[in-house]
Amino acid sequence: MAKRYDAAIKHLVEAHPADWLAFAGLPPATQLKVIDADISTVGPAADKVIQVLAPEPYLAHLEFQSSADAELDNRVLLYNVLLRWRHKLPVRSVVVLLRPQADGRGSSGVVNEVAASDSMLDFRYRVIRLWKQPVESVLAGGLGTLPLAPISEVAREALPDLIESIKRRLESEAEPRELTDALAATFILLGLRYPREFAQALLKGVREMKESTTYQMIIEEGEAKGRAEGMVRGIAEGIAAGIVEGRIKEARALVLRLGQRRFGRAPEKVIEYLDSIVELGELESIAEQLVEAQGWDDLIAG
User: Among 58, 69, 72, 237, which is least packed, fewest CB within 10 Å?
Assistant: First the structure.
């Protein structure tokens, strides 16, 4: 689900950057450009970055969070500094916490450290807790942020009427393609807060949503990315396991080699005992005891 919402929101930002500036409470401008957020040469990519071509230009850095991250404060600081370094512009960072589960000790909006009078850091960014945003203010915003309304501050029982209000506004203001994409995004974002079946029931009969090519793209992209990441994760775990297994074999061989120098040929029971050990730390501990052990029996008994 995280990959689906991620793609949906990024599409909304690309299509309506001015709406997101307004939602984030950042200074507007008539000329906006969604730019490459990749800073992978020195760090991970940020979510979305808008270049604001105003008399005092700046970058609006938008980060979306659906789960708690104890390192969020530091990560936003990293993105802010790297974006500033790459684009040579001031950067204003805004984090949108999409649901209560995203809130935590790492999302304070402040990194403040004073090690000494000549070593001080005071970094601040804006935090928007979406579930605390009045639904009326989200409804009054631009079309690009309208799909956020069902996961803002609104009671569950009020959602059917809210969905109808969203649909009516889209029908009166949006182009046909925008309408289908916005309804698709609304459905996907609902899944962050409510079961899929509930979201489907709310949007039952909304034919336009299912016709959205963006909706299909988001679903397919999320599933493909999830499969790919699962494959990469599996390969990485396999490599890591192989490395650990290799180190365990090396540790066994080292214990045998050093032990045989001190005590002579290892008995079969010692070899079987060492082969039964699967923890690297335990083998390292045995290797340390070689210095004081009086023989093989003393070593494996310790």
Answer: 237
The token duo for 271 is 């070899």
In whole angstroms, how far apart are CA 47 and each of 129, 150, 178, 244?
17, 22, 22, 34
Statement: the pTM of the whole predicted model exceeds 0.70: no
